[in-house]
């Protein structure tokens, strides 16, 4: 979680103009603040950080919505007697990066973030140890490979946030001992920050701000370029593996998080090189900054559907994306549609093993993705490939903003003027924000009323798209079952109804087959142009 906030903040810093031009900076800062507010609450004393809520074993034993959870919510902390330098260090990095992101917009909040960041770094450095030795229940799920990289990472961000020489001296003095100039890596992730440290310190060097520390920072830069060249396949055969379709392949389990993080670093390093009119020197030849961006675009295009499987691995985007995402909330009907608790094991019986697609679309979730041969199996039980992670999605914000600024609206886009409205949210009654229309099908012999509303809109490449919300209401005194609707002129994605084998024909989802008198069912769709035409085909 802390790493994801760091990456969101880095994106807001590095691609500030691009995100602002897309009218997305407010949303980006809101997402960052959602995380940093939590970290502030969890940092109850200078040397105390609450690091985990719940137990992984009992949580994995259940398949249930967050609203229904009955498993232990016990909380676990790190402190002086039970240290966690990796966890405290990453949280310090997140708060320091967020302080930079917020500084132009909310200086008092930025200052508060820095107070906590400094305290957490001091705590991480003075009381050293692995967090999963202190929070032992994390070992089975998020084992830490070490804490030296997080200490360097936090110190680097604090240097950039404060300008205090103490922090740059720290990364220089500990460069060898902590592996900053020794580790040449091929991955950047929530557990391994070395490549991020090396790229960030290269910025200090390239901008001519290294001063007396330039010799050591050049060693950091050499390792940054090792990582970059390895991604570009120009590292004298010491390269990151790629699939036949061109995707970076680092690990079997949730590989996409390593793809998005690597693409982010190369987008950032391309910026650094361009700003200082520099080139990348790889063993296989000199490389211009544009080649790094070409690589970034190739990985983003693969994620969004330009791949051998013709699948978008970003859920909710494109014509074809994973429908059986390994995610509890996505795979179980919403509390607005299913008004009773789903028990711990009942979730497995009723929802986990269903062959049907998930009832909810977890828009923006980046799933684990294909294997080393570009093969992908869209199955809920295939968690290595279908589980989404915030660590995978977080770097995408900066990547997409950068690519949008360079290449414009190629295919679909995300240039929203408003945030998408949650699918099950009660419709607004504010006429300034929601447009509503009502139609009745009683003239066709069906006592059903449709309430159609437009809850938000956005513009992409000159075309306006609308988020439509339709309430189906039984206005009769009898239950209605097996309702089938014909939806014409539908050009976008639709959620909340199940498609049938008949063209343009949809039915109520399995968990809501009967509409009782006065009850409602909701579906939503997104498209440009006029609204779709909804009519009843049959009912009982």
TrEMBL record:
<dbReference type="Pfam" id="PF00759">
    <property type="entry name" value="Glyco_hydro_9"/>
</dbReference>
<dbReference type="InterPro" id="IPR012341">
    <property type="entry name" value="6hp_glycosidase-like_sf"/>
</dbReference>
<dbReference type="InterPro" id="IPR001701">
    <property type="entry name" value="Glyco_hydro_9"/>
</dbReference>
<keyword id="KW-0378">Hydrolase</keyword>
<keyword id="KW-0325">Glycoprotein</keyword>
<dbReference type="GO" id="GO:0005576">
    <property type="term" value="C:extracellular region"/>
</dbReference>
<keyword id="KW-0732">Signal</keyword>
<dbReference type="Pfam" id="PF09478">
    <property type="entry name" value="CBM49"/>
</dbReference>
<keyword id="KW-0624">Polysaccharide degradation</keyword>
<feature type="domain" description="Carbohydrate binding">
    <location>
        <begin position="448"/>
        <end position="528"/>
    </location>
</feature>
<comment type="similarity">
    <text>Belongs to the glycosyl hydrolase 9 (cellulase E) family.</text>
</comment>
<keyword id="KW-0119">Carbohydrate metabolism</keyword>
<dbReference type="GO" id="GO:0030245">
    <property type="term" value="P:cellulose catabolic process"/>
</dbReference>
<protein>
    <recommendedName>
        <fullName>Endoglucanase</fullName>
        <ecNumber>3.2.1.4</ecNumber>
    </recommendedName>
</protein>
<dbReference type="GO" id="GO:0008810">
    <property type="term" value="F:cellulase activity"/>
</dbReference>
<feature type="region of interest" description="Disordered">
    <location>
        <begin position="413"/>
        <end position="446"/>
    </location>
</feature>
<dbReference type="InterPro" id="IPR019028">
    <property type="entry name" value="CBM_49"/>
</dbReference>
<dbReference type="InterPro" id="IPR008928">
    <property type="entry name" value="6-hairpin_glycosidase_sf"/>
</dbReference>
<keyword id="KW-0964">Secreted</keyword>
<dbReference type="InterPro" id="IPR018221">
    <property type="entry name" value="Glyco_hydro_9_His_AS"/>
</dbReference>
<dbReference type="GO" id="GO:0030246">
    <property type="term" value="F:carbohydrate binding"/>
</dbReference>
<feature type="active site">
    <location>
        <position position="326"/>
    </location>
</feature>
<feature type="compositionally biased region" description="Low complexity">
    <location>
        <begin position="433"/>
        <end position="444"/>
    </location>
</feature>
<feature type="compositionally biased region" description="Polar residues">
    <location>
        <begin position="416"/>
        <end position="432"/>
    </location>
</feature>
<keyword id="KW-0136">Cellulose degradation</keyword>
<keyword id="KW-0326">Glycosidase</keyword>
């Amino acid at each position: 979680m802390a790493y994801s906030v760091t990456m969101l903040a880095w994106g807001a810093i590095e691609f500030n103009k691009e995100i602002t031009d897309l009218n997305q900076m407010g949303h980006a800062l809101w997402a960052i603040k959602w995380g940093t507010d939590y970290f502030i609450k969890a940092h109850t004393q200078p040397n105390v950080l609450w690091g985990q809520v719940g137990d992984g074993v009992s949580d994995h034993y259940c398949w249930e919505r967050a609203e229904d959870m009955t498993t232990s919510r016990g909380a676990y902390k790190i402190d002086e007697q039970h240290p966690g330098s990796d966890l405290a260090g990453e949280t310090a990095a997140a708060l320091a990066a967020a302080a930079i992101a917020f500084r132009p917009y909310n200086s008092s909040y930025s200052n508060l973030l820095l107070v906590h960041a400094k305290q957490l770094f001091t705590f991480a450095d003075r009381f050293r140890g692995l967090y999963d030795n202190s929070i032992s229940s994390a070992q089975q799920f998020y084992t830490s490979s070490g804490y030296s990289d997080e200490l360097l990472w936090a110190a680097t961000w604090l240097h950039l946030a404060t300008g205090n020489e103490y922090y740059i001296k720290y990364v220089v003095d500990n460069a060898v001992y902590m592996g900053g100039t020794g580790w040449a890596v091929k991955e950047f992730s929530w557990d391994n920050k070395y490549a991020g440290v090396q790229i960030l310190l290269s910025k200090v060097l390239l901008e001519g701000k290294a001063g007396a520390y330039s010799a050591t920072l050049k060693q950091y830069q050499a390792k940054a370029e090792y990582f970059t060249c390895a991604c570009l396949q120009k590292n004298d055969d010491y390269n990151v593996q790629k699939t036949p379709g061109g995707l970076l392949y680092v690990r079997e389990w949730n590989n996409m998080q390593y793809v998005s993080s690597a693409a982010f670093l190369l987008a950032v390093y391309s910026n650094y090189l361009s700003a200082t009119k520099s080139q990348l020197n790889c063993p296989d030849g000199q490389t211009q900054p544009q080649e790094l961006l070409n690589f970034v675009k190739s990985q983003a295009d693969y994620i969004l559907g330009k791949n051998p499987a013709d699948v978008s691995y970003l859920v909710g985007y494109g014509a074809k994306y994973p429908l059986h995402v390994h995610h509890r909330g996505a795979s179980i009907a919403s509390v607005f549609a299913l008004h009773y608790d789903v028990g711990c094991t009942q979730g497995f019986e009723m929802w986990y093993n269903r062959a049907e697609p998930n009832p909810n679309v977890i828009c923006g979730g980046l799933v684990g993705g294909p294997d080393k041969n570009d093969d992908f199996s869209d199955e809920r039980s295939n968690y290595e490939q279908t589980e989404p992670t915030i660590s995978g999605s977080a770097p995408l914000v900066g990547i997409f903003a950068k690519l949008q600024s360079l290449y414009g609206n190629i295919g679909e886009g995300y240039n929203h003027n408003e945030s998408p409205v949650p699918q099950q949210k009660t419709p607004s009654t504010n006429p300034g924000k929601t447009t509503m229309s009502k139609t009745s099908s009683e003239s066709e012999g069906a006592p059903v009323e449709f309430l159609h509303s437009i809850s938000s809109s956005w513009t992409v490449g000159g075309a306006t798209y609308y988020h439509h919300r339709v309430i189906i209401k039984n206005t009769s005194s009898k239950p209605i079952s097996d309702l089938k609707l014909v939806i014409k002129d539908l050009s976008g994605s639709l959620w909340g109804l199940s498609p049938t084998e008949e063209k343009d024909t949809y039915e109520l989802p399995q968990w809501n087959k009967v509409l009782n008198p006065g009850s409602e069912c909701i579906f939503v769709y997104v498209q440009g142009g006029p609204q779709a035409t909804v009519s009843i085909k049959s009912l009982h």
